[in-house]
Structure formats: structure tokens, C-alpha cells
Design goal:
The structure holds two protein chains of two kinds. Chain A is an alpha+beta fold. Chain A has a domain at about 10-90: SH3 type barrels (Roll). Chain A has helices at about 80, 90-120; strands at about 15-20, 25-35, 40-50, 55-65, 70-75, 85-90. Chain A has a six-stranded mixed beta sheet. Among the domains of chain B are: about 590-690, no CATH class; about 720-845, no CATH class. The model of chain B is unreliable at about 5-10, about 55-75, about 105-160, about 170-175, about 190-195, about 205-280, about 280-435 and about 465-470 (pLDDT under 50). The chains are: A alpha+beta, B mainly alpha. Chain B: It holds the Pfam family PAT1. Chain B: This is Protein PAT1 homolog 1.
Chain lengths: ~130, ~850
């Protein structure tokens, strides 16, 4: 990134930032500190889980993220934030949806592997760290 | 004993040992707080003890952390204490939990603050765990001093605790002065600091005058009143023993460590200062090497400042200006926050070539005062900008600022141009300070300023005619209300990280290092330019982020080698590596190789050829850009180079053999068998001269079935269609005719019943498409140019007749699906066949 993403000077209201981590998590919070490795300190962080058109927020508090796990970091335009087609649901609901989705994915994956095995092919297991 | 009650698992031995020494620690306590307190400094004490030791007192160690008074000496239990304390590492013993535990155990002195707080083992327990786990100096965690400190009126304790040296988390060097930390429970000193001054000047003369820029900033480890039992992590107080990165001795941590001189004169209200101090201290501890400094928890008095004569100095952060200009410079302006005494010296600052402190820093500090963790009471009641008329503020329990004041300050590394102008106290600077944003991307900067403007307008409208100060304060307050943590990162820290990022962008050849970014921006600029031409509107801001350009320096490092020496130099580092392995290339002999190996080698040779040609191709493709960037005089040379490279490429492709006739397509075929080779040819074709290109086309057509067979898996041949069609466009009829001949393998001898060549061609997508293209071209030529020679015409006609016949013969199913069917094919065929057959053909195609 070529722009300075750091926390804003005092004259401006704090801006929310969105961080995407390598394990696929999405964190939204106020970026309080950053360093040259992209280690981040997020304040009043919320983990947002997206499933389809729905999303749910889990408040997490303060996050310190090690830079190597950050995929991208961006500022959230507060005006545009409310302007989304996505629907917010409760935490329980979104977790349930996520579980269902994961299950479906796993089953389809299993079927695929089975089919390949029958044909004598095998896909090497992907590195678990870089699943996404 | 409360110690025994404590259900502590760790360090049981130590604890038991300490338990035995209760009396000694009590003694120490007594020394500190009670009658035994003596106005000593450790040097004298040390000497005394050393003498005693020399005299042969067996058990007395000179540098024990325990009390130093004479009456203590000779006590066998003390001796034991000494020995035991030596066993335990300093930090452990000074661990607040332990100290407290020890304190709590027997201490019953009235009014001792620690006893009132640490009596309960519960408290101790709560604290001990995290403390020991972290092994951090007590200060950082427990020093989260909360505002209302009970008043301390302990004159006696003042001095020893002042004298107390901060704990060392690094192992003490042999022979270093003893480290005697004041236990945590020691209440902060309240009295004035005249003798403190003396001590300072006596012990640390170097702090007075000009300080060497290379000297690390020291931080006192104060002991403050711990009111809040909940430990809080502020920052890991790791001692920085290694030089700061990027060759800079000072890191932002260190910068923060230096007390912001702006704070020196700050008569902060009680409610504000403690946290500030604390946080600052935590920051200070974050990076500085801890050096022994006396306790500095005292309210700052003007008098003291002047006594010290050392308010701080402006020091540039940048490595280019490491020297301290003048330590006598007054504290840079902090609008509205300077005490009049300091103001007298402000003028010195103007002449200083060094940047001043960012007033926003102060605000930053102020902003920082809000506790980050939720567990702390908010004490931010009063507005943070008290008018200077509040000076001098009464020595209250809360003012703990000044532990930092006599350490030289590092001012914010603002460039001179951006230094805020001096203002008189009472007129705080409006929030117009624009941070150094040269490193921001222009779009970002624009947005930032936009928002700043918005906010400013907002605030102005809100505060009306409150005046600058009022407006400033209330907007500030509003900011605090809105977002108290907004300035956890100081501007200088942000700048520092920015700087690092910019350094990473340094490049000698941006097109090499950052190709995609450069191209992307070129595209954007082209678009913008195009738009501008169309719209004729105002020229938009098209500023690029200025990345630092580094001159290209040719370094060919040759490691030092001595003639005739055995082995290599042992000294090697990152900057002067030495050759580890002497690799020698040996070519293999041809005799032993098996056929397989030969085949493999041949393939490898082909691959190598492809790679070489590819680099040539990339260079040639790059010439356009270089041409634009180069000077007029250089251009012919560039063109020449380019031509040469193109020739080389062609030679590579066809199989360079200077003396030989290029009869064999073998080399070319080898290349064409490889997927990358085909792609390479497709890319090279536009650069070749028409004859050369036609030559390639012929070769391809000639060997098309072979190629088709080889391409079955890759299916890359269609990528050649486009360049081939371009080539075709320039070909005369004769060539086209021969092409068709090659493609269709017509005319055939009558004996051959089938035409596998043609069949193969027709059955392949690429082949068929190519055939169509060629036919279409031929038709084009025929229809357009009426002056073709008769012979050629005849040839063509014959060919076409045969071709048509073949096409008719082949069943529809055998025909491949071509990429595209040129429109003039029908008209082509219409010349040679009658309507019936034409219809048949039409349906086939």
C-alpha cells in the first residue's frame, strides 16, 4: 500500500478500518497503531462473518494482529457503510449459517475426492494455512 | 505472617528465603520510611560497605540491595539476607509483588501507604501472578497511577527513594553500582527537589550540558503509588540494547522516551497528570535503556526548572542531524502550555535549526490520557488546556509529570518549514497544524484535508464566538469525547513508519522493481490525458506519490582475496559476503550418454534456446519505452540494437548455422513442439520482416500434421492464428499459393489414395482455420488484383479445384470446427464449382 493507513490525527474523527486476515476472518475496528510490519492494533473490534447475503458481528474488543497474517487493510467510508445490500443478523444465526455452509462445503469436497479416487486420481492436500 | 498464607506456588524457595529475612526487609523498610532513613547517596554507602568488606567482615556484601546503614552491618541475618539476595536476581527481588509481600508481612508503620494498600494478601495475590509471569519491571504494569493519590508527607522517605536507582532488567555488569530500587509501595515524593537537583547534577553531570546525540535517553523508574490493583499492560518494557534499525539510533520509542519538553512546563491539573505521566513513562520505558536516575516524581516548579538549567533541547530526529544544537534551548512552544519561566528562553528556539515540537503532540499526549483499558476510572474531567495563569500549581498528589523533565527532549521531527509559529501563552494554537503529509498518497492527502476542513467548519459553527482558545478547547474536548484514543500513535511514530515504507520503495530501476505499479499509473495517466483532451475541462490533480529515487550505483563487489593464502577470509558479513563455494562447470563427455540422455539434452538445448530468445524478445518489446525515455542522440543506436536483436531471434528460431543452408526445419520444429516455443513464435512474428515471417509460416504449414500431433495435449496452436493472419495480409499470391500447397499437400501423386496431410489439417481446428485464412487471402488477392500473372493464376485455379474436390469428398463429421470462417470463402468456391456442389459445401462449412 502506498498510502499511509495509520490512525488519524486528532482533528479528525476516528475512522473504521476493515482488515482481512489470511485465515479468512474479517475484522472491523478503529486502527490505533500500525508499524512497518503491518502489525495492527484494533480497538473496539468486531469480527464480521459473512454468509451469503447475511452477516453477523461479534464484538471482540482489542485486537493485536501480527503483520504477516494481514491480507489487506482498508478504511471504511462511514457514509457508504450503511449503504449495503447485505442484511445484518444476530450472532447465533450467522454462526449457524456458517456452520451449515461449512458442512455443505465439506460434503461436496468429500464427494469430489471420492470421485477422483475412483478414477485413480488424487488431489494433494492443500496447505491448511492458505486455505483461502 | 501473610506470606505463609499466600497460596503461591512459584518461587517458593525464594519466598521462604525472604520469609526468613523478614526482619532484614523490615529493616530496609525502616531505613526507607522510618527513623533509619539517612540522607545518603549510594556511592558513599558503597564505599563504606566496601571498606567494611575489606576489613574482613565476612558476611557483608557491598552491593546488597538491602539497607546500608551501619547498624545493620554485622548482623548475621543481614549477611544471610545479602547472600540470599544475591542468589535471587535483582529484578526478582525488586519484583513488586515480592517486595510488597515482604512489606506487608511485618510492616505496621502508621501512615505507610503501602501497608494500607497491600495489607491484604488478596491484593497481593492478584497482582503477583501477572507480574511474575511477565517479569516486567514493576513500573510499567503497576504504575498505572490513578489520579487521587493520598497525600504523602513523608519527608524522611524522600531522599532514599529519590536516591533509589531504577531496577535493571538486564543483568548487571560486574562492578556496576548497586541497584537499589525503591519498593513499589513507596509513596511518591512530594517535597521540593532542591537536594534532588544536587544529586542530579552531582551524579549525572553529563545530563547538564550538551548531550551527545548518541546517548540513549534514560528513563527513571519511578515508584508510584499503585492504587489500582488491576495490572495493565501498557507496553512491554523491553530494553533496547541493540542499535535502532535503519542506522538510526533513536527509534520512535526512544523519542517518546524523551520527555516531551512541552510537558516540562505543564501545570497540568491533578486530574490529568498522573495518567499522562504514567503512560508516558510506559512509553519511555518502552525503548530506553534504563540508567540509574533518581526518583523524579515531583511536581514541577518553575524554580526547579531554572535551577536545573536544563529544560530540554531540540534535537533533530533525522540521522542527518544528530548533533544537539544547544541544550540550552528552551522548550519548544507548546501553545498555551508553557510556563512563563520557560518562555523567556523561547527566543532561542527561533534561531534553532532544529524542528520544534509539534503542538499536536501535546494534544496527542492529552489525548492519550484516557486509559486504554476499560478498567480504569475516567479522570478526564477538566479541560486539558489550562491557562498559564494556573501556574504555579500547588504541589498536589497528582502531579507526577516531572520525572522526565530534566532529560533532554527530542522534539518532533518536523521540517523547518512546518514548524508552527511561536505563540504567546494564553493563545493556544488553533488546530491548523498540518502534519507532514508528503508521504501520503495524494488522494489520501486530499481526503484527509477535506475532512479536516469539514471538521474545522463543524467546530467553528459549534463553538461560535468562543474565541480561539475556547473553540480550540471545546473542539478538543469534543474530540476527546468523540474518540479519546484517536492519537495513540504520535505523529512522529507515524512518520517513522512512513519513512520505513518509503525507504522500501527506493529503487534504482522502478520499471524493474515495480513493473505493475508503473504500468498501472501510466495507463491511468493516459486515460486522464485522453479524457482531458476530450472534455477540455480543468486539469485535474494528477500528482503521483513521489517515491524516493536512488541513483543507480554500479557495485561489483569482489570479496577480498589474498594471493597464495590457504583458505578464505573468515570475516564476512551481510555487506561483504565471501564466496563459499567455488563452483566449476564441467561439460559432460558424449561417449557415455545413452540415447535417452541425448534426447533429453537436445530438449534441454531447445529449452535454453527458447529462454534466450525470450529475453531477446522482452528486450525488443521494451525498446519502445526506452525509445521514448531516451535522448535524441541515443535513438539510432537503440534502433540498431533492436534490429540486431530481432535478427538474433530469428536465427535462434530457425537454427543458426552461419555457413549452412537452412534446409532443415528441425530446429524450428523442436521449438514448436514446446508450448512455450509456440507462444514465443506468436510473439516474435510481428517483429519479423515479411520474408522471414513467411518463411516461418511455410515451415509451419509444411509440418503441420506433425505439429498437430504434438499439440494434441496443449492446444496452443490457435494462438498462432492471429499473428499468422497478420502475416498473410502482406503476402503476395505466389506465396499464398505455395502455402496452400503446403497445407493441403496437393497436388498429390495419383498413387496416393488418401491425403493424410490434408485430412489431418482439416480435422484440426487450427489447421482448418489456417486453411480458411489462406484461402480467404487468396480469394481476396484474386478478386482485388486483376493483374496477376497467368501462371500463378493457373496454379491457383488448379489448386482450388483440387481443394474443393477434397473438401467435397470429406464427410462433414470429419471437419473440425474452425475458429472463424471467412466470409469470402463461398465466393471463392463459387468460381470453381457449380451451384449444387456449392450448396453442399455451404452446408459443410
Amino acid at each position: 500500500a502506498r498510502a499511509w493507513p495509520g490512525p488519524t490525527p486528532l482533528s479528525l474523527p476516528a475512522e473504521k478500518h476493515l482488515v482481512l486476515l489470511r485465515d479468512g476472518r474479517t475484522l472491523i475496528g478503529f486502527l490505533r497503531s500500525i508499524d512497518q510490519f503491518a502489525n495492527l492494533v484494533l480497538h473496539q473490534t468486531v469480527e464480521r462473518i459473512h454468509v451469503g447475503k447475511k452477516y453477523g458481528d461479534i464484538p471482540r474488543g482489542i485486537f493485536v494482529v501480527r503483520g504477516e497474517n494481514v491480507v489487506l487493510l482498508g478504511e471504511i467510508d462511514l457514509e457508504k457503510e450503511s449503504d449495503t445490500p447485505l442484511q445484518q443478523v444476530s450472532i447465533e444465526e450467522i454462526l449457524e449459517e456458517q456452520r451449515v455452509e461449512l458442512q455443505a462445503k465439506q460434503e461436496s469436497e468429500k464427494l469430489k475426492v471420492q470421485a477422483l479416487k475412483e478414477r485413480g486420481l488424487s488431489v494433494p492436500r492443500a496447505d491448511t494455512l492458505d486455505e483461502y | 505472617q501473610s506470606l505463609e498464607d499466600c497460596p503461591l506456588d512459584e518461587d517458593e524457595d525464594a519466598f521462604q528465603a525472604l520469609g526468613e529475612e523478614d526482619e532484614d526487609i523490615d529493616q530496609f523498610n525502616d531505613d526507607t520510611f522510618g527513623a533509619g532513613a539517612v540522607d545518603d547517596d549510594w556511592q558513599e554507602a558503597h564505599e563504606r560497605l566496601a571498606e567494611l568488606e575489606d576489613k574482613g567482615v565476612p558476611s557483608r556484601d557491598a552491593d546488597g540491595p538491602v539497607g546500608n546503614d551501619g547498624d545493620v552491618l554485622g548482623d548475621p541475618e543481614d549477611a544471610l539476607a545479602e547472600r540470599l539476595t544475591r542468589l535471587v536476581i535483582d529484578s526478582d527481588l525488586e519484583d513488586p509483588a515480592i517486595m510488597q509481600a515482604v512489606h506487608t508481612s511485618g510492616h505496621t508503620q502508621p501512615g505507610a501507604l503501602n501497608s494500607s494498600i497491600w495489607d491484604s494478601s488478596a491484593v497481593l495475590r492478584r497482582i503477583r501472578g501477572p507480574l511474575l509471569a511477565q517479569e516486567m519491571p514493576s513500573v510499567s504494569v503497576l504504575d498505572y497511577a490513578l489520579p487521587q493519590q493520598p497525600p504523602q508527607a513523608r519527608e524522611e522517605e524522600r531522599d532514599p527513594s529519590e536516591r533509589a536507582l531504577p531496577r535493571r532488567s538486564s543483568s548487571p555488569v560486574i562492578g556496576s553500582p548497586p541497584v537499589r530500587a525503591v519498593p513499589i509501595g513507596t509513596p511518591p515524593k512530594q517535597a521540593a527537589i532542591p537536594n534532588f537537583n544536587q544529586q542530579v547534577s552531582a551524579r549525572f553531570p553529563w545530563l547538564r550540558g550538551v548531550q551527545d546525540a548518541s546517548r540513549e535517553v534514560t528513563v527513571p523508574l519511578p515508584s508510584s503509588q499503585i492504587l489500582c490493583p488491576k495490572p495493565v499492560h501498557i507496553r512491554a518494557t523491553m530494553q533496547q540494547r541493540y542499535p535502532a534499525p535503519y542506522g538510526e539510533r533513536m527509534s520512535p520509542n526512544q523519542l517518546c522516551n524523551v520527555p516531551n519538553s512541552s510537558l516540562l512546563g505543564h501545570p497540568f491539573p491533578h486530574s490529568v497528570s498522573p495518567v499522562l505521566t504514567h503512560l508516558q513513562r510506559a512509553q519511555l520505558l518502552g525503548g530506553a535503556q534504563v540508567k540509574p536516575l533518581p526518583m523524579l516524581f515531583q511536581p514541577l516548579h518553575r524554580q526547579d526548572l531554572q535551577d536545573l538549567g536544563l529544560h530540554g533541547s531540540s534535537r533533530s530526529f533525522s540521522p542527518s542531524n544528530p548533533t544537539l544544537a544547544d541544550s540550552r534551548h528552551s522548550i519548544p512552544t507548546q501553545a498555551g502550555r508553557m510556563s512563563p519561566s520557560q518562555f523567556a528562553r523561547v527566543s532561542g528556539l527561533v534561531g534553532s535549526p532544529l524542528p520544534s515540537v509539534n503542538p499536536k503532540l501535546l494534544q496527542g499526549r492529552v489525548g492519550q490520557m484516557m486509559p486504554p483499558a476499560g478498567g480504569f476510572r475516567a479522570f478526564f474531567g477538566a479541560p486539558p488546556a489550562p491557562p498559564p495563569s494556573q501556574l504555579p500549581h500547588p504541589p498536589g498528589p497528582g502531579s507526577h509529570l516531572q520525572n522526565l523533565r530534566w532529560v533532554p527532549s527530542l522534539s518532533h521531527p518536523l521540517p523547518r518549514s512546518q514548524r508552527p509559529p511561536l505563540t504567546l501563552p494564553g493563545f493556544p494554537r488553533p488546530q491548523m497544524f498540518r502534519p507532514d503529509t508528503t508521504h501520503l498518497h495524494p488522494q489520501h492527502r486530499r481526503l484527509l484535508h477535506q475532512r479536516q476542513q469539514q471538521n474545522r467548519n463543524q467546530h467553528r459553527s459549534l463553538n461560535g464566538s468562543g474565541g480561539d482558545r475556547g473553540g480550540h478547547r471545546s473542539s478538543h474536548q469534543e474530540q476527546i469525547r468523540k474518540d479519546p484514543y484517536a492519537n495513540l500513535m504520535l505523529q512522529r511514530e507515524k512518520d517513522w513508519v512512513s519513512k520505513i515504507q518509503m525507504m522500501q520503495l527506493q529503487s534504482t530501476d522502478p520499471y524493474l522493481d515495480d513493473y505493475y505499479y508503473q504500468n498501472y499509473f501510466q495507463k491511468l495517466e493516459k486515460l486522464a490525458a485522453a479524457e482531458e483532451v476530450h472534455g477540455d475541462g480543468p486539469k485535474k490533480e494528477r500528482t503521483k506519490l513521489i517515491t524516493p529515487q536512488v541513483a543507480k550505483l554500479e557495485h561489483t563487489y569482489k570479496p577480498v582475496q589474498f594471493e597464495g593464502s590457504l583458505g578464505k577470509l573468515t570475516v564476512s558479513s551481510v555487506n561483504n559476503p565471501r564466496k563459499m563455494i567455488d563452483a566449476v562447470v564441467t561439460s559432460r563427455s558424449e561417449d557415455d550418454e545413452t540415447k535417452e540422455k541425448q534426447v533429453r539434452d537436445k530438449r534441454r538445448q531447445t529449452l535454453v534456446t527458447i529462454e534466450k530468445t525470450y529475453s531477446l524478445l522482452l528486450d525488443v518489446e521494451d525498446y519502445e519505452r526506452r525509445y521514448l525515455l531516451s535522448l535524441e542522440g541515443e535513438r539510432p543506436a537503440l534502433m540498431g540494437e533492436r534490429k540486431q536483436k530481432i535478427c538474433d531471434m530469428y536465427d535462434n528460431l530457425r537454427g543458426k548455422a552461419p555457413g549452412q543452408d537452412r534446409l532443415s526445419d528441425d530446429h524450428f520444429m523442436q521449438i514448436m513442439c514446446i508450448r512455450k516455443g509456440k507462444r514465443l513464435v506468436a510473439r516474435i512474428l510481428p517483429f519479423l520482416a515479411p520474408e522471414q515471417a513467411a518463411d516461418m509460416l511455410m515451415a509451419t504449414a509444411r509440418n503441420l500434421p506433425f505439429l498437430i500431433k504434438k499439440d494434441a495435449q496443449d492446444e496452443v496452436l490457435p494462438c498462432l492464428l492471429r499473428p499468422f493472419s497478420h502475416v498473410l495480409y502482406h503476402l503476395p499470391l505466389g506465396t499464398v499459393t505455395s502455402l496452400v500447397q503446403q497445407l493441403t499437400n496437393l497436388p498429390q501423386s495419383a498413387a496416393a489414395p488418401t491425403n493424410p496431410h490434408l485430412t489431418a489439417v482439416l480435422q484440426n481446428k487450427f489447421g482448418l482455420s489456417l486453411l480458411y485464412l489462406v484461402l480467404s487471402r487468396g480469394e481476396e488477392l484474386q478478386s482485388s488484383d486483376t493483374n496477376t500473372e497467368l501462371i500463378q493464376d493457373n496454379q491457383w485455379t488448379e489448386l482450388m479445384l483440387m481443394a474443393t474436390r477434397e473438401l467435397l469428398r470429406i464427410p462433414q463429421g470429419a471437419l473440425a470446427k474452425p475458429v472463424s470462417i471467412p466470409s469470402n470463402l463461398i465466393s471463392l468456391f463459387s468460381r470453381y464449382v457449380d451451384q449444387q456442389k456449392l450448396n453442399l459445401l455451404e452446408t459443410k462449412l
